[in-house]
Amino acid sequence: MATQLASAPALPVSIEDVRAAQIRIGDAIVRTPTLISQTLSKLTGATVYLKFENLQFTAAYKERGALNTLLQLSDAARAKGVIAASAGNHAQGLAYHGNRLGVPVTIVMPRNTPVVKVVQTQGHGATVILEGDTFDAAYAHARVLEAERGFTFVHPFDDPRIIAGQGTVALEMLEEHPEIDLLVVPIGGGGLISGMATVARAADRPIEVVGVEAELYPSMYNRINGTDMPCAGDTLAEGIAVKEPGGITAQMVAQLVDDIVLVSERYLEEALSLLLQIEKTVVEGAGAAGLAALLAHPERFRGRTIGVVLCGGNIDTRLLANVLLRDLARSGRLARLRLRLQDQPGALYNVMRVFDRERVNIIEIYHQRVFTTLPAKGLITDIECEARDRAHLDGLMVGLREAGFEVSTVELA
């Protein structure tokens, strides 16, 4: 990786392309802040700078590449309009800037796309067509419409204009904080990291570039390392859940990127929760991937001055609530305890006395008498409760056992 050989083929995007994109899009894109996080720096052992791309108008960096592409279309192409296949941030970025520039935008989405994403994209002025049950089916239909109606297809990542636009993220970070010596960048199709690595390699000092993928979707990792790990499953980081990286981006990653690390769902959840609690900022799963890498691989990043891209903030509120509650459970502040009781008067009352003594709040109680392997006079009781922290919860469990109750925790995955 990061091949620096004279025989390596010339890359389709140069630092001049990225600088030209910065000038081209500069007055219509939010120059989002890059701020140091003292708390996350202390937590990870690195100096951590966060790039808040979740503060773009459509809450994601994808606007940059979309706008850079739209501004380079001919008048004839603008008049006919553009088309894309996307159920995510690319759709909204293209729709928003297309509407602003008077360019008709058509987006093809799978039929199972959440209604909120359809409505948001339509709200930016795009025509949305629902076709197929998978992204591949939607993509194929978009290419058919491109040929039939003379649209210009705008790829979400495998296009030099898109890559150059995304690279402006790194230009801004390094202009504001030239002390950064390592960039940690989420990888889906590879457009963002290709553009940012182009900027890093053009710097007058060594800047390492490390990509991050979800363990469930290691597509670029497979391509670069020759592995064959499966790409499937429900990941929190749906914005980088790409089964096949781009051909252009794979070439650029192979030559420019130093390393790719994988992160599990647990670290993605923890990172998202920490960003909300510590930085008071909402990110989607993909937006949390950079911090998740620092949490999952602390020895890889300790002592470095790191730029982390919070690449997007579009997350379903119900999913966000679920992630936060799961994080509370892992920290011991929420728990479900399972107790074995005798089905007789006073049994539950005696349990409650222990909770009262330990000052642990009870949220819900569930009795199970029928669907259990216990004798007929036995029952299982699940109690959801709220403690101050893990030590407080452990004290409650000790108290319950000392009172003669058989108790265990219902653990999260």
Automatic annotation (TrEMBL):
Annotated GO MF terms: threonine deaminase activity
Q: Which InterPro entries match?
A: ACT_dom (IPR002912), ACT_ThrD-II-like (IPR044561), Ser/Thr_Dehydratase (IPR050147), Thr_deHydtase_catblc (IPR005789), TrpB-like_PALP (IPR001926), TrpB-like_PALP_sf (IPR036052)
Q: Tell me the PANTHER family matching this sequence.
A: L-THREONINE DEHYDRATASE CATABOLIC TDCB (PTHR48078:SF6), THREONINE DEHYDRATASE, MITOCHONDRIAL-RELATED (PTHR48078)
* Listed name of the protein: Threonine dehydratase
Q: Which cofactor does it need?
A: pyridoxal 5'-phosphate
Supply the EC number(s).
4.3.1.19
- Boundaries of each ACT domain copy? 336-413
Pfam families, per this entry?
PALP
Stretches of the chain forming a coiled coil according to its record = none
What NCBIfam families does the annotation carry? ilvA_1Cterm (TIGR01127), PRK07334.1 (NF005600)
Class of enzymatic activity (EC top level): lyase
Q: Which domain of life is it from?
A: Bacteria
Query: Could you tell me which species this protein originates from?
Result: Sphingomonas endophytica
The catalysed reaction is: L-serine = pyruvate + NH4(+)
Family annotation (PROSITE patterns): ACT
**So what family is this one in?**
Belongs to the serine/threonine dehydratase family.
Q: What UniProt keywords are attached to this protein's entry? A: Lyase, Pyridoxal phosphate
